[in-house]
Amino acid sequence: MSDSPSSPQAPVTSVAPVAPKRRIAALDALRGFALCGIIFVNIPQTMEMFAYAGQLPGPLRLLFLGRFYPIFYLLFGIGFGIFLRSAARRSGRPRPLLVRRFAALAVLGAVLHLLQPGEVLLPFAITGVLVLLPLSYLPRRALPAVAVGLTVAGVLAGVGGLGLLPGLFALGYTLAELRVPETLGERPWRLVALGGGSLAVCGLTYWLITLPLPDVAQIRLGTTLSLATAGCYVALFLLLLRTPVGAALSWALAPMGRMALTNYFGAALLFVPMGAALGLRGSEEWALAAALGAAILLLQAVVSNVWLRRHGYGPLEWAWRCVTYWRRLPIGGPADAGGVRGAA
Fold first, then answer.
1. Does a structural domain hold residue 339?
2. Is 4 within a domain?
3. pLDDT in tens, 139-164
4. In terms of residue numbers, what domain contains 206?
5. Rounded to two decimals, what is the model's pTM?
6. What are the Cα distances from residue 238, in Å, to 39, 188, 191, 218?
7. From its phi and psi, is residue 66 left (phi > 0), alpha (psi between -120 and 50) or beta?
8. Which of 140, 159, 235, 249 has a CB 3.0–4.6 Å from the CB of 194, allowing a cystine?
9. Chain segment 161-201, per-residue pLDDT in tens
10. Running DSSP on this structure, what letter comes out for residue 130?
11. Residue 261, in any domain of the structure
12. Structurally, how many domains does the chain consist of?
């Protein structure tokens, strides 16, 4: 029997969120990794340090621009799937909870947009309502084809990174429905295949970009290269978590990922005034911008670790859950950090 949200419900006890226990630690660390890459583009973009990609330094353009947001998109789709499955076990009507969840995210995004034009929380909320909610009614067997179709359509649309949003949301939701995140540690060959395939696409796409092709093709090739590079990063990072350095990476990045909403929002609260004070707006002080990003990430890594030793959720994550369930919930403590798998 299907356990999708549209299938018959088990008896419902109380409508309440899952405690932050036995989380899928690799997803938290990967989310923290994505945040680390995103800030190095967000700072110069918000500070108006470039008008088009060609003005960026080579390493920033090739390794960071458009490479980390696809990971963030995918993880949001996965989190949606995990949350919906959890909510369906606790409520006969889980989707109204999700509507409130997306509405709260839209409000946060609108506020953040005043400080950081181009932020992604508001597009996340809109796409969640328009794409993810309808997807939740589809049978599981239809999801892979829809996800792939939306992703290909996003590349062909030629509108850049946001064009990938519906497809990657759908792909993440599909992975959650197929329980792929729960088996990440059991099938490393999947990661090797993802990395090898993505690397081959990177090589082919980069070669094609060097050819004198028309702009309409170059734009779509650039989006493909961003997507393939993100695939390489995901595979490499998750494989690194299986090595001796994995514990150190998880210690630094998993708490940041558990507090991704707080850290994403908080980063703008820090780098916008600090960047202005440092004279970054309209400048070419790339090293200074990178140093500011690194300093903020170091601060967030420490604060996230310290905060989660005493609380179960980050402050914005806790507020988001309170709005979702429309009642004040306990913020939790360190004793809550070890049981049920939950979504950010």
1. no
2. no
3. 999 999 999 999 999 999 988 788 99
4. 25-326
5. 0.88
6. 21, 9, 7, 30
7. left
8. 235
9. 889 999 999 999 999 999 998 887 777 888 999 999 999 99
10. I
11. yes
12. 1
